[in-house]
Amino acid sequence: MICPKCKEKIDWLHNYQSGENHTRLSLFDFKDKKIADYELCEFQANGKINDFECPECSEVLFRDEKKAIAFLEDNDELQELVVEKLNKIKEKNDMPKV
After folding, report:
1. Which of 42, 46, 57, 68 could form a disulfide with 22 if both were Cys (CB 3.0 to 4.6 A apart)?
2. Torsion (CA) 68, 73, 77, 82 in degrees, nearest 10
3. Which residues of the chain have a pLDDT value below 70?
4. In whole angstroms, how far apart are CA 39 and each of 29, 30, 32, 81?
5. What does the domain layout of the chain look like in residue ranges?
6. Backbone angle region of 58, left / alpha / beta, with phi > 0 → left and psi within -120 to 50 → alpha
7. Can you tell me the distance from the alpha carbon of 74 to that of 18, in angstroms, rounded to the nearest whole number?
8. Which residues of 8-37 are buried (b: 16+ CB within 10 A; e: fewer)?
9. Could you tell me the end-to-end alpha-carbon distance of the chain, in angstroms, rounded to an integer?
10. Are 16 and 49 in contact (CB under 8 A)?
11. Is the separation of the CB atoms in 60 and 52 below 8 Å?
12. Phi, psi (deg, nearest 5) at residue 32
């Protein structure tokens, strides 16, 4: 998939949700010190924030999970070929003239 904002090729999205984490706290020994270890037991979303962001440019692309999934499932090969060709042209134009 191609990010509609930055035009980079991506195959996953960051998801940020607001809510409550329920964790288990334990301690373990590391080099003669006690280190805190938090293990996620449960997360309860509160529905206020549910952003799906591009991992390259961090722009919010979706706020709806169904739309985010549909975007990830859509594999538009033509779109990817166009972006690849544009990147090659850009690289060629960025090369120093001899």
Report:
1. 42
2. 10
3. 75-80, 95-98
4. 16, 17, 22, 42
5. 14-89
6. left
7. 27
8. eebeebeeeeeeeeeeeeeeeeeeeeeeee
9. 36
10. yes
11. yes
12. 65, 20
Amino acid at 82: V
pLDDT at 41: 94
What single-letter DSSP state applies at residue 3?
-
Residue-level pLDDT at 80: 67
Biggest CA–CA distance in the chain, Å, is 63
The pLDDT of residue 76 is 64
47's tokens? 């529905």
The Cα 17–Cα 40 span in angstroms is 15
Whole-model pTM: value is: 0.63
- Backbone angles phi and psi of 69, in degrees to 5: -65, -45
Please name the amino acid found at residue 88.
K
Closest-CA residue to 26 (of 37, 34, 11): 37
Q: Supply the pLDDT for residue 16.
A: 96
pLDDT for 91 equals 80
